[in-house]
Each structure stands twice: as structure tokens, then as C-alpha cells.
């Protein structure tokens, strides 16, 4: 045996031994890395091991305000005039494609801590709903909700957040039609008894390059605490539109009329009507100014409220907004014995969104 044969034999033995030892080593499982999902816009990623795309978003807002309280005749010393507040929102959106269309779910949790309050004191799931194609169900905005005012919420008219099931049909060219059964029952309104049937609501909407518009209405029960009276039919109808007047300038207007949102318990329903609107102009991509105004008339309650506000927002860096707002609101009572009142309000805030 020569030296060359000895070296080759030794090398073969080492390779064989190494292969045998390698066969005994544990094999690492494949790793599922988080992957970007670009099918639904920015921010979505695949939940590892699934076809579901998830987006997590939210905000943290801190502000100092004076006024901006919907007193509605309440004595001023019963509410804070000057207060700090911290408002947080966290939202989850999950989407994936199916043979019946996009399957989606949205969960949104809000917490608003004002002066003297503790965390969670005003926390709630503001929205929680699912969608499959045009079908949707859960807790979300009513389709009869009209408010084009930018900053004050007092002058809108509609049914706000509620539980509902509905269907949105796309008619082409930016036009859609919605029909829904909504759980509106005048919650928190004295004078209404519990409902025995859902509200039937419908909306026709359009969204194109010039802006957007919708008209909607609903019929529902207006039941009396006093069982001697049969339930009446309550109804609401209204509309809302937004117009892109020129580059950077938009104008919105909304209004509606409702009869039966509450009653006197003696066979008489109460009604109200409202109108509101506002302009918003972007001086630059990061500097926006807006002004709005609104009016609401509570007929049988015999008072009227109107107001106006203005706001300027500055975005020094992406996702950080600094804002200042001022406003004025006045309530006039029809009865001579009632005292009219007004409110001047101001607000400064910081908001970080993600």
C-alpha cells in the first residue's frame, strides 16, 4: 500500500463517518416568516400558516379643551369646563379571498379618559363586524347617519353605531345600494319602550371623482311605555354630500328629518330636523384649515341649537397631527321661563396615528 492509497482511504472513512453522524442530528423544521400582503393596500401581512391578511392600526390622541360640551340645558356646574383627555383607538382588519368574494372582519376598540376618569372608564368596542362580499353583520355605523360638520358632533342627525345586518350591492360607476335590518330602539331616550321589530333601512350612494353623495331613510317602531297606546311608526330620512370644488378645497353638506325618535308616552311622537356643513382647504400637504356650522331644531322639546367651529391642523412628520380648534354654540328655548345659554369652546391636541 502506498502513501496515496492510504490518504484516499482515510478521507473516505472520514466522509462516511461524518455522513453517519449527520444522519443522527435533528432536522430543523421550516420557519414561517411573516410576509407582506399587498392585495388590500399598505399595512397588511399574512398571518403565518394562513391565507388571511391582517392589518393593525390605531391612534393615541392627547388634548386640552375648554367647553365642547353638549349641555342641552344642563347646569354648567355639573360638568367640567376645562379638562385634559387621552383618547386611544386600536383596530384590527382581517381579509382573505373566497369563492363568494372577500371575507373580512373589523374590530375597533376605543378608550377615552377625561379629567378625573380612570383607564377603561369610557372604553368600548366601537365597531365589530364581519363581511362576505356585499353581506355585512355586526356592530357598525347605521346607514342612516348624516353629519357633514367637521368638528362639532351636536348637529348631525341619524342613528349612530348599532347592531345590524345588511347587504351592499354595487351597481357600477361608483353607485351602490344598501338595505339593512338595524337594531335601533332609541337607546337612552326616555319615552320609548323596548322594540319588538328591527328598523328597516335603505341607502343609495354614489362616489366618483367629483366627490360623493348618499340619500337614506328608515322606518321603525315608536312604542309607548303606557300600554294603552299602540306603537306608532317612526321614520327618518336625509342625505349627505361632499364636493371636490378645486384642488385642496372640499365642501360638505348634510341634513335630515326624523319623527318618532321619542314620544311623550301619551300617544304623541316627537320630531326634529337638522342641517350642517363645512369647508376644508389644504394650504399644503401638511397644513389644513376648516370651518363648519350646524343647526338642529327639536320641535316638541321646544328648543333650537346652532353653532360653528374652525380648526387648523399641522402634520410636521408623517402620522403626527397637531391641531387647534375654536367653536361657539347657542341654545334657544321657546318657553319664556327657560334660560337660553351659549358656550365658547377651545381645544389643542396631539394625535399620533399608525
From TrEMBL:
One of its GO terms (molecular function) is porin activity. GO terms for biological process: monoatomic ion transport. It is a multi-pass membrane protein. Keywords: Cell outer membrane, Ion transport, Membrane, Porin, Signal, Transmembrane, Transmembrane beta strand, Transport. GO terms for cellular component: cell outer membrane; pore complex. InterPro entries: Porin_alphabac (IPR003684). It is found in: Cell outer membrane. Residues 1-22 form the signal peptide. Forms passive diffusion pores that allow small molecular weight hydrophilic materials across the outer membrane. Consists of 16-stranded beta-barrel sheets, with large surface-exposed loops, that form a transmembrane pore at the center of each barrel. The pore is partially ocluded by a peptide loop that folds into the pore lumen. Belongs to the alphaproteobacteria porin family. This is Porin. It comes from Cohaesibacter marisflavi.
